[in-house]
Amino acid sequence: MNKFRDSVTGSGIPITEKIEIARNWLPRYTGMPLEGFGDYILLTNFYHYVIRFAEIFDCEIYGKDKPMQAATNSAGLSIINFGMGSPNAATIMDLLIAVEPQGVLFLGKCGGLKKSTEIGHFILPIAAIRGEGTGHDYFPEEVPALPSFKLHKFVSEKIADHGYEYRTGVVYTTNRRVWEHDEGFMEYLKSLTVMAIDMETATLFIVGHHNQIPRGALLLVSDVPITPEGVKTEESDQEVTKNWSDVHLQIGIDAMTEIGEKGEKIKHYNY
User: Out of 14-18, 40-44, 117-121, 128-132, which region has the weakest mean confidence (pLDDT)?
Assistant: First the structure.
């Protein structure tokens, strides 16, 4: 029996390798066995996305009593609710090395910071600024947080197929959850000329780069925090969820399913 299996059965042999930790912890966090994960994965912050996915495909939800919930359809597409924030984003991208996904797409929400980014708009970020700090444990600050271009190509085509427009630009990722009152920070964001702000995208990109996982993000503008009346509330968030979450999820499903069906390689070359 190998060291990983021994550690799982409690032999006292320490788990010291990253891959061994990931193989042990991914099922522990999600409740899903390793063999249950598909080659392509949707990541989200929202449990109701997982519920809707399971309803569409009539599949089981794992991890209802775990920190993360997951489901996989019959075509081998999985979805995981990893929670909120940069540390959780880094955690799931580290744990996914246990199953070596062929592609990962984040379906998240963001705050629009431009007049051209209104509630309900989609954003395909071409890059993310690493304001969160978590990513500094993986690469120096100078290393940009970038998506996998070919994955975003599939997503952009599916957005167009559904009849929606999208924006491209740079997203700022922060660890701060409550910053809308901070005028100095607002001015800093304006000086960066970023399109939107969120709490996960840069971390997902940079840790995905570190772990050689093809990754992308399709962000839904859920609020416009550059104006006082645009700050998200429970009521406004419920309205966004009601009007836009289904199409957000469906675009992600369609894009990742088509990648799987075509079998097109989306991983960057190593240099």
Answer: 14-18
**Domain 3-262, CATH class in plain words:** alpha beta
pTM, 2 dp: 0.89
On the 0-12 / 13-18 / 19+ scale of CB atoms within 10 A, 242 is exposed
Residue 110's DSSP bridge partners are 221
Helices H / strands E in the chain, number of each:
8, 8
Amino acid letter, 258: E
Looking at residues 29-42, what average pLDDT do you find? Answer: 98
Instruction: Look up residue 168 and give its two tokens.
Output: 């491209």
| Residue 246: strand, helix, or coil | helix
* Total residue count of the chain as it appears in this document: 271
3-state secondary structure of 216: strand
Instruction: At 65, list the tokens.
Output: 């009593």
Are 124 and 251 a contacting pair, CB within 8 Å?
A: no
d(CA 271, CA 262): 26
Domain boundaries, the chain: 3-262
First to last CA, the chain: 36
pLDDT in tens, 115-164: 778 888 899 999 999 999 999 999 999 999 999 998 999 999 999 999 99
Contact 213, 205 (CB under 8 A): no
> What are the angstrom distances between the C-alpha of 221 and each of 16, 41, 107, 231?
41, 22, 11, 12
